[in-house]
Here is the input.
Amino acid sequence: MPTPRGDCKSAERAGLEFPKVGIVHKIAEMKRRSPPKPKPRYEGIFMGLDQLRARLDEWDRKHPSDGKTGWEGLDPGIARAVKILMENGVDTCQSCQGGPGHSYPEPTVDLRGGEGAGWKALGVCLDYGLPVLELRRVWTVGRPDRVPDGRPLWQIVFREQLSPI
Here is the structure.
């Protein structure tokens, strides 16, 4: 029987089979026999405030900045409000300092939580003297059925950008 020249594909075309020995074949066989590993459970929306702070601190350690505060991932015109809200137990999920080229026209912080979450956040902002313009409850409307998606978000809108941290 002739010996094929080239790669394994040419050997397969010639109808030759090679013995399945070696570490590569053993690892492949072990993977086929072993049950799949369970995927880690996503904890993003079930995360407590302490876990969130720990993750933010871990991210800051892994991604050192050029001397900025630990909140450099946030727009500077809204970071102070987000920090105050988080330090007072409010679950923020998104923020924007507003203006041209930003997600919102005015400085806004989105919050998660039940019926009282927005009122708690409003109280914290007023206690710290932040320039609140509006408190909103927002539902997104999905396509193609045009029905509100999931749970609503709270939004706190500020009159102006805040001073940096």
Summary: The two ends are 78 Å apart (CA to CA). The chain is about 30% helix and 20% strand. Residues 48-158 form one domain.
